[in-house]
Design a protein that fits this description.
With about 325 residues, this protein is of the alpha/beta class. The protein is built from ten helices and seven strands. Helix 7 runs antiparallel to helix 8.
Length: about 325
């Protein structure tokens, strides 16, 4: 196994050392003073103007008591087949800790990345590993454990929960059908009105230019999104005190949720939506780890009603595309 070294890339270094999770660069001391975390992403590494602003969520996200240690994770690879691709990025969020404590492993040396990643998961001793299309992650981990001779019994002892199967309606109940499960993008938009900050093409363009920053930021967004969806699912499925006997408008729910001081604010650096407490300003953004603004009446995010385009109701996907094309040609 070779020692890990970062290949120099002009003007745009990697934001992470994949083994220590420390940022790479001369400004590390300053960053440590501003944000005392070993898992810091600092967007200065991009050295270019970017926009990572997500749309406003419709409702606050649920924090459910899961009674199990759940690790939400997602990997980024250079392709689809294990015998052809390389793993470049993997973020992991223990749903029992704040979202800003999410850990990201990234680098060009796949063996070093996998050794560090597998050791971290082993140390956490999770009961559940959560992913969207979890078979992809499981297959990647098995193949890399075999390739690099890494002992990883947790791959078989953990429960694997697939958010895609759950949302497809067939999880643990034997139901089958031909309805699409939907993409992660579909469900993030549906539940939280969130949009991933980079396209896959933009991430691959960054890789071709020697950068992983776009992949890291997109990857962390995926991990937090599926973790939030999982907690929401556990909340609505839980018996006892979590059961809601009377339907209430979502605006009323937000009022109740905000009563103890919980509010939603947008990060001023990357635009990600964060949970904040009134009167506090010592929390960090889950995506870029910048300091969050203090919640005020001016910057607290309120509910937005979900809009439906009734002009396309009843049309097939092909008909909708034709309608949109005809509309664009008229402009």
């Amino acid at each position: 196994m070779t020692d890990f070294t970062l290949e120099p890339v002009a003007d745009e270094p990697l934001p992470f050392d994949p083994i220590t999770h420390l940022p790479v660069g001369d400004s590390w001391i300053e960053q440590l003073q501003e944000t005392p975390s070993a898992n810091t992403i600092y967007l200065e590494a991009l050295e270019k103007d970017i926009s990572l602003v997500s749309d406003t969520p419709n409702v606050p996200k649920i924090h459910a008591t899961l009674n199990k240690k759940v690790i939400s994770l997602d990997i980024e690879t250079t392709g689809l087949n294990p015998w052809e691709y390389q793993i470049l990025v993997c973020s992991c969020w223990d749903l029992g800790v704040p979202k800003a404590d999410m850990v990201t492993f990234a680098g060009w040396d796949e063996e070093e990345l996998c050794v560090a990643l597998f050791a971290w998961i082993e140390e956490q001793q999770p009961d559940v590993i959560l992913a969207f299309n979890a078979k992809f992650e499981c297959r990647a981990f098995i193949s890399r454990a075999m390739l690099y001779h890494i002992n990883a019994p947790w791959i078989w002892t953990c429960e694997w929960h697939d958010m895609m199967d759950m949302l497809g309606g067939g999880w643990k109940n034997g139901l089958t059908g031909t309805q699409p499960s939907g993409s992660e993008e579909n469900w993030l938009k549906f539940f939280f009105n969130e949009v991933k900050p980079y396209t896959i093409d933009e991430c691959f363009e960054g890789v071709r230019e020697g950068r992983l920053t776009e992949f890291i930021i997109r990857n962390r967004t995926c991990v937090q999104g599926q973790g939030d969806m999982y907690q929401l699912l556990q909340h609505v499925a839980a018996p006892g005190p979590y059961y809601v006997t009377e339907e209430k408008p979502s605006a009323a729910r937000i009022d109740e949720w905000q009563a103890p001081g919980n509010v939603l604010v947008a990060c001023e650096i990357c635009g990600a939506i964060n949970e904040q407490i009134r009167g506090l300003s010592d929390r960090n953004c889950w995506r870029c780890l910048s300091a969050l603004p203090q919640a005020t009446d001016e910057n607290i995010i309120q509910e937005q009603a979900r809009t439906i385009d009734y002009s396309v109701v009843g049309l097939t996907a092909k008909e909708i595309k034709a309608k949109e094309k005809a509309a664009s040609e008229k402009k």
